[in-house]
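Minutes, project check-in
Item: structure for the 397-residue chain
Input as provided by the requester:
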Amino acid sequence: MSSSLQTLSTDPKPEAPQGLALWSLGFRPFYLLASSFAALSILAWAAQYTELLPMAYVQGPGWHGHEMLVGFVTAVIAGFLLTAVPNWTGQPTPKGGALAALALLWLSGRVLVLTPFATVSMFVNAAFPVAIAISIAIPLWRSDNRRNYFFVVLLTAMGGVILAVHLALGGAIVFPARAGLMVGLDLVLFVMAVVGGRVIPMFTNNGVPGAGATRLPLVEKVALGSLLALLAADVFRIGPVAPIILGIAAAAHLARLLFWHPWRTLGNPLVWILHAAYAWIVVHLVLRMLAALGLLPESVAIHALTIGAIGGLTLGMMTRTARGHTGRALKADRFEVAAFVLVQLAALARVLGALFAPGAYAESVALSSLLWSAAYGIYAVRYWPILTRSRLDGKPG
């Protein structure tokens, strides 16, 4: 385990001036914005929820869910795709002024949602994933990279979901905003399953010699197909079939995870955090199945996904890609390990508190929020200089 706590002393010596590089590749501004927003917005929400904040940060749980989905998650997806697509295609994605404009569009949405300008806020927030879709569609089309066209479709669909949620929260349409947010989370869950299935076995075998992580075609098809079926059930609000779909999905994703041999990854934090986060997908599916059967509140399942799976996977991927794309060694130091542990504890506090200590529900929400904010606060502070300065090896990006 001592090797997992190595500091940056293993990083290569700088070969180029450490100038400002914030706008040189998509992960830089969006990982910084996402982590800062994740830390600060959840603190504000927890203060509002526990009535420590004299004024409302957002107007209720619906807007809280909106901001975490539209603010936090879409920023992480944007940073990842704007960085990954050039590797997949050999074609550039926006940088410089164009990248700054995308960041400004995202930031405008975060500000406008707190103002009375609801209509402007709606269009700005819906425009952001569509703008990212266009930004990656061009290099994907130029390189004929059809395998990844579905990311363009999913981002465009996310824009439609955001419009529907805004209209529902504003009372303009008779549609439950919670249902719209669930569809948005289904889209994010599918993205995580696709990306996780591609990279987690590879990172496992590369980072843990002899791990033997494998993928079985039948398991892959059932795992992804069941999530698409769940998405369709939520879009068309076919509630009766949901428990069956969720049960199949949970079994398929558990099998998928077991074939990746997570128990062999404990000595490598950059790998085990990805497995731990993926395990929360299985937990989410099981809890959501129980919620669909009326055995527990749906919010427990939702937070298993949002804190455990999304929080853990994004933190792990943001760490790995940021280190790799700035010329640093792919080894977690004590700050990063602390952040990984804190986000897992945040998920446990939120889920177990709701299940086994309902009388201390507000306290468990506050504890989970503090742990989450600490995890992402560590990342934001730790990676501020890394994300804003040039690569250590002098290469572009």
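Outcome recorded: The domain at 15-388 is CATH 1.20.210.10 (Cytochrome C Oxidase; Chain A).
No further action items on this chain.
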